[in-house]
Structures are given as C-alpha cells and as structure tokens.
Amino acid sequence: MAPVVSVESLRKRYRRRDPWAVDGVTFALEPGQAFGLLGPNGSGKTSVVKMIAGLLRPDGGDISLFGSKPGDPAARAQLGFAPEDPDFPKFLRAGEVLDYFASLLGLDEDDRKRRIPETLAFAGLDQERRQVRQFSKGMKQRLGIAQAILGRPKLLILDEPTADLDPLGRRDVRALIESLKASGVAILLNSHLLSEVELVCDTVAILAKGHVLKEGTMAEVVPEGRTLEDVFVELVEASSTKRDQLPSFISEKEQL
Amino acid sequence: MNGTVAVARYTLLELSRRRILLVFFLVGAGGIVLLGIFLKIANTLTTGGSGSQSLNGATSLDPAQMSQLLEAVFVTYLLGALGIFALLIAFAIGMTTIYHDLESGTAVSLFSKPISRLAYTIGKISAAVAALVLVVGVLGIEALLAMLLFGGGLESALTAEVLAVVANTVVVMLIVLALSTWMNNIIAAVVAFIYYDVVSSLVVTIHNLTHQGVIDNGFLRAVFDVLYWVVPHQLTSSATGDIARTEIQLTGGTAADASQALATIPPASGAGDILWWALVVLVFSSLVYLAVRRRQV
Q1: A47, A84, A91: best mutation site toward chain B, by most B Cβ within 10 Å?
Q2: pTM of the predicted model as reported, rounded to 2 decimal places
Q3: What confidence category does residue A252 fall into, taking pLDDT thresholds of 50, 70 and 90?
Q4: Burial class (CB in 10 A: 0-12, 13-18, 19+), A255
Q5: Which residue of A66, B30, B76, B114 lies most exposed, with the fewest beta carbons within 10 A?
Q6: Chain A interface residues (partner B, CB cutoff 8 A)
Q7: Given an 8 Å threshold on Cβ–Cβ distance, is A77 in contact with B114?
C-alpha cells in the first residue's frame, strides 16, 4: 500500500548557528495507521509536522505527501491539520471560520450545508454566537480540530490536540481518532499525553533533540510489563544531560 | 480563484467589524457634515442672506459670490480632512490585514489548506483596496453632497481630488502591508510614513522647486530629477489650482496675480505620473507577495 506521507532524512534548523531542530528524521505512514510522534519540549515534533503541512521549508531530506511535495495545493487538499495553540480570524464567528475554510477546501454548497453544522455540533460550538476573539483556548482548540476534519482528510495531523481540552473533549478526540482510523484515515499524532498515545496509536517514534531515538510498532517499542511512559523517560533521559533537581529553596523548612 | 474570493470575502467581513475603522469613518463623516454646517451658518450670518459684503474693504461680494467663496474655503478644508482620514484608514487597514494572520496562529490553519500564497495575497490586497475605496468613496460622496449646501460648482475638482487621494493612499497601504510582513506593524507604519510622507514628499517638493526656478542649481536639479523617479510620488489633481483660481476671481484679482499664484501650485498629474503610480502599485504588491511566499509560519 502506498504511504500517505513519507519523510526521508528530514533536517531543519532555524538559524545557521543554531543546532538542528530536526536531524535525519525518517518515517512513513499508511492509510488507516495512527502514528504517534513523541518527544520532550523542543524535540522537533512540531517542526516535523509543519514541514509535512508545507508551512516550514526543510533544509534537507525529502517529504512525499500523497506522492507530491507538501507545497502542492492538491496534496494539501487531502490533509487536515489541527495545530497546537490554533488561532483564527478574530472578528469571525465559528460558523464563518468553517465556511471560510470550506471555501478554501473547495467544498460545494450541499457539502457545506451538511458538514458545517455537524462539525460545529461535534466541536460543541453550534450554539456559540461570539466572535473568535472572545473564545477560550479550549474553544479555539475545538475549532482547530473542527476545521481539520471539515474536508474529510485522508491524513489528519493533530499537534497536541488535547492540551487545552477538558476530559470530555479528550474523550471526544479519542473517539474521533478511532472512528477516522477505522474508515482508513491516517493519523499523525503529536502528544505529551503518553497514556492517550498508547491507547490510539499503532506505531510511535520517540524524538529528542531532533533525532529519532526509537521507532516501531507499540509492541516493539514498549516491552511486555512496561509502559510507554517508562520507555519514553528512560530514552529521553539517556539522551540528554540530567535535569537539575528541585531548586534548593523549595525544600527549606519554614522558620517559625 | 475560489480561494482568492474566499480570502477577499472574509477579509472584508473582518474589516467591516473592526472598530478602529468604524471610528475613523464616523469621525470623518461627522467632521465633513459639521464643517459644512458651520460654514453655511457663517455664510448666513455674514451675508444675512442678502446684500453685499466687503472683503478687505476693497471688493464687494454679493451673496452668491460669498457663497461661492465659502464653498471654495469649504472644499479646501475638506480636501485636507479627507486626505488625513484616508491616510488613517489606509494605515489601519494596512497594519492589520495580513499582519494579524501571520502573527497569530491563523496563517498556520490557513496555509495548510489548499490555497497558494499567491491566491491568498491577491485576496488580501483586493479586500484591503476594496475596503479603502469604499470608505474613502463614501466620505467623498458625502463631501459632494455637503458641497451642494453652497450651490456647488467645484464638483469636478473634488471628484478628481478624491480619486487622487484614493490612489495615493492605496500606495501607502501597500507599503505598510509589505513592511508588516517583515516587521512589527507599528514600526512598519512609522517606516512607511517616513518613507512616503516625509522622504518622498520632500523629494517631490524639491524637484518641483528646481523646475519652477525657485532653486537655481544644476546639480540639485539633476539629483532630484533622478530621485523623483526613484520614490513613489503622490498623484495630484487640478483641485488646488481650480480652487485658487476661483478665489482669485471672486476677490477681484488680476490675471497677472492669478498666473503668479498658480505658478507655485503643482500641476495635475499627467499620464507619465499615472503610469508610474501603476508601476509602484505593481512593485509593492509583488513585494507583499514575495514576503508572504517566503514566510514560514
């Protein structure tokens, strides 16, 4: 089966003197597969997904998105991207934002009439009449996921999709991922919530300082009797200088 | 094409909800009405609705002439006010139209959709220009209607000046749009103001003075001949000359007075200036596109 997206020796750095933010990352994702990209803060996860979405230019390596370059609008038409910390035109309402993005996706009138109310209802924003500038972070995150699924993508990239969601929202996103996977949609999930990744992903890659430390199916990466969190902590700590202990003043006893 | 239309449509919707634009528009519209009413009352009080008025104790004006003179004064103030408000509106649109998309996470969601950066830029520029033309156009129509309070007569001068103001502010707005894709929007506005309203105006003024013989220096003339075609220069209408001519005629000035006064007023822009304006618009629109295209979000 041809991969939906394949990434080969991907490299990226933001300034010439900076270390590589992404260095030699390689993976491929097939239809119906859920791939978890894990890593500590600053490990390069968001840079990788932004390069796949055509938002950042790689400094090296290759990306094939539906057999094309990520800059190709036809390839991006099959992609849904829910960014971390999403934002939208702040004077528009949720329905207007979705209508705007539906126009960019080239959805016809019938599709819009059906999909926009249903997507708004899924995101819990169907009764919301305020403009985006008055939304909470959680509401923006819901809208971010809503716009990502609106075009019924073949590849859905979710960058920290549940970071600002309440437990109910997290449950909805998990159900969404399961449902999309079952219908053949490939999912690329960036998340710190390892228990969630363990529940929904078939394969994972653990990144640190732009390098892939370990990659494989969940069974290959997580040995019997251990959790993904155990493996993650062990790998990441081994690859980096040990973090300082708690600040000394924290453990000082209060003078009475 | 659909993407461009969608970007333009929703950008216009957003602009229509920005309070700062509404405030500028309302203050401008209110100012024009108040200025007209104030001068009309002044006209009624000074002429008492009939009889003649003495100007500087020399020329006697009948009520119709007084009304014409007040109209000329009104249009002079109006042109100044219109220019200022058009500039404020151009800055308000230019500072926000693309900058907010790029600086917030909006661009991330937008650019991951199947729209090219060219289509996005065309949509944004079209919406910005349409909004500017609409707002300044409405202010211009209001000014034309207010002028009828005085009987009219300078409509063509005012119309030509409104067109020139719109054309000039489109250039300022494009400069702000282009700069705001590289830097903070407030700094972009300051740089655009210095470049367009200070440096360019200075170059054009000195260029005109060298050609009118006020500055008689061959070297300066050569330098400013070159600079004139390097900076964007504002289009001018015949309005200033028409108003001055009307005022001179009403106050009984001689033909010699008129020609001397009119010699210092820049002539209306010709075809060369208009072509240069079109080229400047194309250049700055291209710069906006290049900046948007190379921007990583």
Answers
A1: A91
A2: 0.89
A3: confident
A4: exposed
A5: B30
A6: 50, 53-57, 73-74, 76-77, 79, 81, 83, 85-92, 96, 100-101, 103-106, 131, 144, 147, 151
A7: yes
